[in-house]
Amino acid sequence: MTGPGFLLESAWGSATAHAPRTVSLAAGLLLGGLAQRSRLCVTGALRDALLLGFRSPLLYGLLAFALSAVVINLVTGGFRLGFYGQPGAHTDQLWSFFGMALVGWLSVLIGGCPFRQLIKAGEGDADAGLVVMGMFVGGALVQSWELAATAAGVPLYGKVAVLSGFIFVFAWSLFSREDKTC
C-alpha cells in the first residue's frame, strides 16, 4: 500500500479498480475547477430544462460533462453500452428508479445535487461540508452493511433501506415545511 495508513484498499469487489492517484487528482482538480466555474448542478440543470426548455446554461454544462465521459470511455476502450457486464450493475430498473428518486427528492430539499454539494463544500460552505460528510458516512455504512446492489441484484435489506429513506424524507418534508396559512 502506498497511501496513508488510515486509507484502506479493498482486495476484492468494485473498489479494487481505480485510476492511478496522480491521474485521479489531476482529473479531479480539472473537472472540479470547470464545475465550480460553470456552477454545474444536475438537479438545477433538470429543473431549468423543465422550466426554461433547452435554453438552460446548466443543461449545456451537464450535456458537456456527459458527452466528455462517453468520448473518454470510447477512446480508452472502457465503453460498454447497457447494463450487462458492468461492474456492480443490475437490471432491476424499478429499484434503480426508486434509489435515484430518493436522491432527487433529497437534492431538492438540500438545495442541489450531491455533485453541487461537493463543489459548495470546496468553496467553504459548512452546510454543504456536512452533506458531503454524510455522503461519506452513508456510503461507508451501505458498503459495510452490504446494502449496495451488485450484479446479482438489489439485496432485501437494500430495498428496506430505500423504503425507509422515503419514509424519513417524507416525514422530514412534512415537519420542516413553513406554514403559510396565516
Jot down its keywords.
182 residues; mainly alpha; 2 domains; 7 helices; globular
Rg over CA atoms: 18 Å
- Total domains, how many? 2
Q: What's the story with the biggest beta sheet?
A: none
User: What's the pLDDT, averaged over the residues?
Assistant: 83
Which H/E pattern describes the elements?
A: HHHHHHH
SS elements, strand count: 0
Shape type: globular
Class from secondary-structure proportions? mainly alpha
Put simply, the count of helices is 7
Fraction in helix: 55-70%
- Sheet-strand content, in percent, reads under 5%
- Distance between the amino and carboxyl termini: 62 Å
Q: pLDDT below 50 for ≥5 consecutive residues: which ranges?
A: none
Concise account of the structure shown:
The chain has seven helices and no strands. The protein has 182 residues and is mainly alpha-helical.
Structure explained in plain terms:
- This protein has 182 residues and is mainly alpha-helical.
- The chain folds into 2 domains: 21-79, no CATH class; 86-176, no CATH class.
- Helices cover 63% and strands 0% of the residues.
- The chain is built from 7 helices and no strands.
- The protein has helices at residues 21-38, 42-52, 57-76, 93-110, 114-122, 126-144, 156-175.
- It is globular, with a radius of gyration of 18 Å.
- The chain starts with 20 loop residues before the first helix and ends in a 7-residue tail after the last helix.
- The model has no long low-confidence stretch (mean pLDDT 83).
